[in-house]
Amino acid sequence: MNVLISIKPKYIEKIKEGIKTFELRKKIFKNYDKVNTIYIYSTSPIKKIVGKFSIEKIIEDHPDRLWNNYKDHFGIEKKDYFNYFKGKEKGFAIKIENLYFFRNPIEPKKVIPNFIPPQSYCFLQDEIYEII
Question: Which domains are assigned to the chain?
Fold first, then answer.
């Protein structure tokens, strides 16, 4: 099973730079232990699938504790972090492993029929391969 997640370009850059080694989520996908690959959809203005990674681990905890324990790995300002998790009793931090960025970002409609950018995530039936 594979998942496509939406990430803002500024955070994708922090992932590339190695500053952001955890992807943050308010909710996690069902059966995440069966997810093989997470594909990265870069939101506007890029609007393409730019890479993929696998999950090393997922940490579920209260946002305060996540921040206290892992803030140096999130690549996000404290104010933005707490605005994102405002009113939430738990958050999820996905440890990124086996990160790979496509040399040629993929136009989603070429590989996913009737593509609509996911608000948070969507499941994919097949692998997505870079066209070189």
Answer: 2-124 (2.30.130.30)
